[in-house]
Fold this protein.
Amino acid sequence: MDTASPALTVHGVTKRFPGVTALDAVSFGLWPGTVTALVGENGAGKSTIVKILTGIYQPDDGHLTIGGARTAIASPRDAWRHGIAAIHQETVMFDELSVAENVFMGHMPGGRLIDRNAMMDRTAALLDRIDADFTARTRLKSLSVAQRHMVEVARALSHDARVVIMDEPTAALSRHEIGELFTLVERLRAEGRAILFISHKFDEIFRISDRWVCLRDGKMAGEGMTADVTEADLVRLMVGRPVDQVFPKRRIALGGTVLSVEGLSNATEFADITFDLRQGEILGFYGLVGAGRSEAMQCLFGLSMPTRGTVRRSGRPVTIRRPADAIAAGLAYVPEDRQHQGAALSLGIRENVTLAALASFVRGLFLSTPREREATRMLGERLDVRAATWETAVGTLSGGNQQKVVIAKWLATRPGIIILDEPTKGIDVGSKSAVHDFIGELAEEGLAVILVTSELPEAMGLSDRLMVMHEGRIVARFERGDWSAEAIVAAATGAATVTAA
Amino acid sequence: MSGIPDRPPFRLAGLLLTWEVILAALLVAVFVLNSLATPYFLDTYNLADATWNFSEKAIIALPMALLILTREIDLSVGAMAALSAMAAGLAAAAGMPAPVLVAAGLGTGLVCGMVNGLLVTRVGVPSIVVTIGTMSLFRGVALVTLGDGALTSFPPGFTALGQSYLIAWPPLPLSFVIFLGLAAIFTLVLHRTATGRRLTAIGANPTAALFSGIEVARMRFWLFAITGLLSGLAGVLLAARFGVVRPNAALGWELDVITTVIFGGVAIAGGAGSIPGVVLSVFVLGFATFGLSLLNVPGIVITVLLGLLLIVSIAAPILIRQMVRAR
Amino acid sequence: MSWLLRHREAALAILIALMIAGVAAYAPAFATPGSLLGVLDDTAFLFMLAVGQTMVLLTRGIDLSVAANLALTGMLVALVGQYGPDLPGPVYLVLAGIIGACLGLVMGGLIGGLGIPPIVVSLGALAIYRGMIVVIGGGDQVNASEMGISFQSFAQAKLVGLSSPVWIAVLVALAAHVFLTRTQTGRALYAVGGNPVAARYCGVSRERVEVLVYTLSGAIAGACGYLWVARYGVAYSEIASGYELTVIAACVIGGVSIGGGVGSVPGAVLGALFLGVVVNALPTMQVSPFWQMGIAGAVILLAVVLNARAEARHGKLILPEARAQ
């Protein structure tokens, strides 16, 4: 194995879009048998680099060399031909087709007709190599997210890819599945492949990577060996300034109970969800992805019907059949999936901010545009939304600003209780601390906050109390100061249910 | 911080390039060219007569615009109009007075629209499939009822609805006045009320609209019901105008109506569109057709031109954008 | 019941068999081989067009212009037959296929190349193609006596009791089935319709696939145009008017999803056969032909409602007891 020369080198690549330079003379190399972590805030240019390496975009300036030779990658197909394979953020696959067809889509064996036997045999061999627990004939739609990742890896192996790009591969995986993925990454590294690993999670970066490359605002912020760098160093490089990682927890006197949920259950997703929420309180819901937290919250918000359970708002029983009922009861729900469930991307900021509280902007028969503008300005400035005008389409804003618009929409309904579902998922380090500060402010003003989060520092830093969910049930309850990271994680992974029972 | 402005600064070029302004310019061009081509075009009575021919379809275009705006479509409008016209005809055959005839037509349309709405919102079938089915079903019911016969006996009080002017001068046909009135209501509802904003939001992102507490299914149901009701109204006006109802009445109207709406600038992907645009589209298409027919251009040739216009009106902006980008 | 809902082709085949048996109980003449072969003869065009439409629907498209394409191509080859030499039938068939493919190619270019929604393009094309029949034919119709002998005889020829359109339909269906299940491009249709973004990352060109399916759908429609005109012995502007909706209905009954990515040739063929049996059974049962359209509509609605119930989404399986089941 020749580790002296890189498998792929990026030479001074520049990419411009109307009004913005996404990449500015970026250069780095990827070596065989090496995992290189690509870090940077959202909007730093990570996904643009991925799109250039996979042939979706062409660089305006600079070039790539592969195995020492200068190469242009004109299309995704070209990228494969040069041995570059990408495993994407949302697993991009075909539900109706078989695993084998997913692996070989675009390059199936055989000539005019597909050689199906060869395709099945080769897929079976690939699945065997990565210890997959499903067959080549399985329909993709019956697989879990983790299993789909294995299909993507098999796909990369089917190209005998020399360079494997993993774009936030762990975003939707449980802790156990992440462990399996890392075993797979180590195997790819041992086989001498160059791996570009993109992640927001520092523990993963330090666990798996050999080298790192950091981007900031489209420019190179630094690169080096992972062994020679600390978390604080990387954060400083990413944001260009040191970020206080400590959460300033404010002490707030709690008011009366504003929400009591008792025995909330549905058939397959969650059972016996019971908790109280007090005014000014931040109640954390921690758990692994897929523990049923979002499903329970969406049911509470009227998006699905429970089979059992009662909900009391300040002592009075309420029936919530649809989101409108929940809003009327003073609840607000900021969903996890900002782009699909949160914002109407093609509409302007004003139209988004007023959407959930439209009735309060009606004067006589018609909407009052001045009142809408006033509210938008007030909430937008309070949340520090950055935009050209208040009519700018939300789809053109950065992820952090989109999230602020969605939160503004819910504050416009003047809620008493706000449910935040993974409010900092996929937003950059700078915006994250702003959101954290803001959650504290909301509680201080007397709102009751339910914070659903998969990030332990966030859960421990902000919550007054913490509910831990596992497999659809609350398995542990912690008071602030009476918890440890080990105990919380043990409960979330199911270890504590054994001792409790 | 200096603060973020409420709206982008006014730019004349931006205003001039809106689809509504382009349509208005086209309308002027249609009038100028037609009056140069034939002296009969600018005659008040001729123009008034022209409106007879497009007002009925134009009435259906208004709710269709809202449906397409919310990512739905209704291909059964022609069949609903025919069934409603037949209901009015059957009531006439039973000797009912004119108001009952109108009520029978409107009621039939409403019920048909509610059937569409239920199938789309309750059963969750895509509206294009549902309305292909109900289109055959509704037209089939008319065929079974009438066979190759026709209903021809209507009381004069009823036919007057489709044949007389509302006032003597200016000579405005009733159907045209109804269209203008409805267009004004639809404009206000879509662009000035909370309901209209909610509809736009459903078109832009149905899931986010649902999560924002908007009753997406209920609003869609009522849109289908209103489309049925106004298709029924169009059917009643058609029956009154011709004084005869056959099962093939209003055949193919759905395509004309959808063409009008898309030409009016309503995005087929939902979330964008304006009622003034649709009204201008009605006028451009209606008066262009009328002018060409005055010049003895056969109707079928006009169909070809309208088809070309539809495709060109969508393709031209895309081509221009591509050329601008290539530069 | 749930097995039948999952295996739509089998369910549909059983339903068709039951229907034939039911009709035969009233009118035994319907179940005779001659009568059943007649059903196939009548349904041949629907078979072919449904197969073409299936390919379009798989890519999340829709082609509302097929019947207009059929009529225009039929008129064009009829005029060739009228004014040109009396060529052998297969030559007309190929010629019609090429004309139809060109008409489809134009649409494919607008949809794939410019990204205009298929419903807009095919609505416009529908109007244009229908109108062009009158413009080209001068509003006249071409009658059987004017077309030429070999022009007509090919489409009316019989082999083993079945007319040539049925045999051609069988060939088209077989070719399309092999294309969709056994070739790279055929599977790419499912990819483009099932997940357009993923297809792009796999190097599948959406544009090329779209141009291809509309061209193929057009070629099939064009070939049907010749066969239709030759079989019924008349070409005029209104033939097959509104037939595009029957074609889509056949596909929907056969389980082809309007949303793309789901469907098969056997499904589409069975869907077409189902409609063919219904339409042909009505006269045998002394039901007025006026019932045809209403029944077709009711059947479509029933099919899609059953389908929607089979596809109804269930919650995620999170609770251990739910997963154990």
